[in-house]
């Protein structure tokens, strides 16, 4: 079998479950940076995990996940400035689609001593969350009102 890089990454991710082993030969699959990063992390080889995560982020510059992985791996090593840079790039790549990269950025700002920036980020996240909840409730109210008008 000759897996592609994506299917190999999924198998490597699942390899943390009991009785699932990824063949070392499969990890030689071209562009399998994600799988190799996960594999190295599970073996506590953080430098290798970081190297593969960097390659992964270069291979997928549009994606936030490799940058999230880099942020996490750097944080494990106490490299908070590097983690912060990765988190900033992840926030940019994510474009506000999820909260994870923003929360990672908040954490790295706190850990790197940028507490004022962290406080401003926390306030911004709280306001965005409140605004999103109000918008969702308004949409639900409008939908319910339209349904009542249509069928009532």
What keywords describe this structure?
152 residues, Serine Threonine Protein Phosphatase 5, Tetratricopeptide repeat, 7 helices, 72% helix
What does this entry look like structurally?
The chain has 152 residues and is mainly alpha-helical. The protein has a single domain, classed as Tetratricopeptide repeat domain (Serine Threonine Protein Phosphatase 5, Tetratricopeptide repeat). The protein is built from seven helices and no strands. The protein has helices spanning 5-14, 33-42, 46-59, 65-76, 80-94, 100-111, 115-151. Helix 1 runs parallel beside helix 2 and helix 4 (65-76) runs antiparallel to helix 5 (80-94). The longest helix is centred in the C-terminal third of the chain and has 37 residues, at 115-151. The radius of gyration is 20 Å and the shape is flat.
The total strand number stands at 0
N-to-C series of helices and strands: HHHHHHH
CATH class: Mainly Alpha
CATH superfamily name? Answer: Tetratricopeptide repeat domain
Strand content: under 5%
Number of contiguous helices: 7
Number of domains: 1
Shape category: flat
> Could you estimate the helical fraction of the residues in percent?
over 70%
Task: Just name the CATH architecture.
Answer: Alpha Horseshoe
Structural class by SSE content? mainly alpha
Largest sheet: none
CATH topology: Serine Threonine Protein Phosphatase 5, Tetratricopeptide repeat
The chain-level mean pLDDT equals 85
Question: How far from one another are the termini?
Answer: 60 Å
- Rg over C-alpha atoms, rounded to the nearest angstrom: 20 Å
Low-confidence stretches: none
